[in-house]
Write a structure and sequence with these properties.
single chain; about 20% strand; alpha/beta; four-stranded mixed β-sheet
């Protein structure tokens, strides 16, 4: 494809700006690190450009400093203004401090405290305004108009672009050897989208045996937001809803059909179960299980359908991820129901041992599971909430067996929350 002269002139000019860019007074040349596991999974040679090692944990420092360093003396005296809710704000603040220039950073009122504190720690004056980026940006433009401050835009500025472009210069220098010009593909989706972008690009274009470079940025969020990210990132588990007969033994049968769906004949990890008895012929369970990739997930779902289960794929279902997985069930009217909370050891087979115990066929009347909530959270032990129907005279027998099982347990049958929200015949 022939490049129009005007576009070629712009590219040539930008290339010269990249070469002349002033970034290394504050930024460092970050390493290009080979990602062994990602390379194996994607069947390409994947490299990570470790911009998370920058002083502000992001490449945004490069563009911000290059823009500010190229301002006139008069502009520097008047100060600068920027609008950002994250990495750009920190890059501007650090750059301004190093050049002894006053910087005002407009951030939305909803900005997490960790981001505000980081900007203030780097010497920036934070102004919280607006409920979103658009409203905050309008305030920044008002400051530019009324106070004649220079605007440092996060991306729509040739000098900012040139500063970020020094990443490409470093990658070329670091990767010039081997067969770079024949095989390398370089992508730079911002922040945490980098690896997701690589995954999607490789999958959709059926790319293999190539070299890929991905730019990394450090996490820029409050710690309690990590659960939101982990539930949405490409992961090694699949979330579904599944229908089973509402009858004793069905819960255990589902476990076996799912846990032993692995063609390698090794138990598959069950990472989540959410179930509550309902007075109808069918029960619905929200669960997640370990997978090695999309093809493995498709194989499991196909096998479950062959075994007669009705399945609802919850991939991408925000309500399920945010709410339904925690709200499964409701109040049930059951005689002789008891509720126990267990500390399950996170080891293969722990859930299977428990299900074998409650459905022991040698017992005159096997215990019927009426509630089950379990979520693997990566700790050595995880709390599991289990409801069972047993005769009152069997409770001592139950606790005797629980002692033998070796799990720490707590009787929650008289718990206020259980009786008010989960039990129709509460205390």
């Amino acid at each position: 494809m022939k490049v129009p002269p005007s576009v070629k002139a712009t590219i040539d000019s930008l290339f010269k700006d990249v070469i002349r860019a002033k970034v290394y007074d504050v930024a460092i040349e970050t390493p290009l690190q080979y990602a062994k596991f990602a390379s194996k999974r994607l069947q390409n040679r994947v490299f990570l450009k470790r911009e998370d090692l920058q002083p502000v944990f992001s490449f945004k420092l490069r563009g911000a400093y290059n823009k500010i360093a190229n301002l006139t003396m008069d502009q520097k005296k008047k100060g600068i203004v920027a609008c950002s809710a994250g990495n750009h704000a920190q890059g501007v603040a650090m750059s301004a401090r190093s050049l002894d220039i006053p910087a005002t950073i407009v951030m939305p009122k909803t900005t997490p405290k960790i981001k505000v504190a980081s900007v203030e720690r780097l010497g920036g004056t934070v102004l919280l305004d607006g409920d979103n980026y658009t409203e905050a940006y309008e305030r920044a433009l008002t400051i530019v108009k009324n106070e004649s401050k220079a605007l440092v835009h996060p991306f729509d500025d040739p000098l900012v672009i040139a500063g970020q472009g020094t990443i490409a210069m470093e990658i070329i220098k670091q990767a010039i050897r081997d067969t770079y010009y024949d095989t390398r593909a370089i992508m730079e989706p911002a922040g945490a989208l980098a690896m997701a972008g690589a995954n999607k690009w490789v999958r959709e274009n059926k790319i293999s045996a190539q070299n890929l470079a991905v730019v990394c940025s450090g996490a820029n969020m409050d710690f309690n937001q990590l659960r939101f990210i982990s539930d949405r990132a490409e992961s090694s588990e699949k979330l579904i809803a599944i229908q089973i007969p509402e009858q004793p033994g069905a819960f255990k049968q589902l476990y076996y059909d799912l846990a032993y769906s692995n063609i390698k004949n090794t138990p598959r990890s069950i990472t989540e179960f959410s179930y509550r008895y309902a007075a109808r012929a069918k029960a619905y369970i929200i669960l997640s299980f370990g997978i090695t990739g999309p093809e493995d997930a498709s194989t499991v779902l196909r096998l479950l359908k062959i075994n007669g289960y009705e399945i609802f794929d919850l991939e991408g279902n925000e309500m399920a991820k945010l709410h339904a997985r925690y709200l499964g069930g409701g109040r049930a009217s059951l005689d002789d129901e008891v509720l126990y909370r267990f500390a399950f050891p996170e080891r293969p087979g722990a859930l299977e041992d428990f299900l074998n115990f409650v459905s022991d066929e040698q017992r005159a009347v096997p215990y019927n599971v009426t509630m089950f909530h379990y979520r693997n959270r990566g700790s050595l032990e995880n709390s599991v909430l289990v409801g069972m129907q047993i005769a009152k005279t069997d409770k001592k027998d139950l606790e005797h067996f629980l002692d033998q099982l070796g799990f720490d347990y707590f009787d929650e049958t008289r718990n206020l929350v259980y009786n008010q929200f989960l039990c129709e015949n509460g205390i």
